[in-house]
Amino acid sequence: MLLAILLPLVLLLVALALYARLVEPNRLRIRRRVLGLPSWPAALDGFTILHISDLHIGRRPTPSRKHLRRAAGLHADLYIVTGDFLSNGQGLEQACTAMRDFANGKTVYAVPGNHEHMNYRLGIPIPGRFRGKGIDAAGNLRALSHAGLTFLVNRHVVLTRSGASFVLAGLDDRYNKADDLPAALQGVPSGLPVILLSHSPDLFPHVAQRSIALTLSGHAHDGQVRIPLLGVPFTGTIHPLRPASGIHKHGDSLMHVSPGLGASMLPIRFCARPEITLIELHRT
Fold it and tell me: Taking the model in full, what pTM does it have?
């Protein structure tokens, strides 16, 4: 009697584990979002941003490399990657090869994530107190820059398209206390809308107070594992993040949290598909 009850349960758990390991990480979603920003220039109506994050490219082949090749074939006006190219600080050579193929003449703006700074194999990431082994973050960013990425590390650039301008700013990793928002925004011309890149979504309440039009973040992987009826047990963020991906609003400021392309800690996803997001901006 007990065996008749336990056997189907064990088989179900095995099937779910195989799905999370072999199927869902390969089920890429390409999502289109239309956002309205009050400060967005009318001349840039319909401007499109391709936003990806959290590739976690290690030394072994990962589905995220295949997803990155798919992203390379999509057209956008601006290409953004919000950190975690590596997996526990490893896979730099593989990540550089993948990003070189992705950039391929395009201007791709990026910010680092916590996995460019730390190797968590020797520690457990605890919100508010990340423990791990430090690695050569500056060397990682130099190599990825040579692969074709333009990193905005606590700085900004002014971009002009179709005769209209906006500010694109970027932060270093907040979880390693390397971010400097005042430095990133120092000298920003008044009257221009600001798009901020930050691997961590935890900064959103602070940036919203500075009238940032749009923040692009990652890190949470949409929870990576979602339990039906219960939701997301863990997002890796310091503050609760609900929803674990998608659009957040604070006053007139918006944030998009990418579900990411890869996985960390365990190479699984469940009810949290990898995603390439195409964001279309309009003036409201």
Answer: 0.94
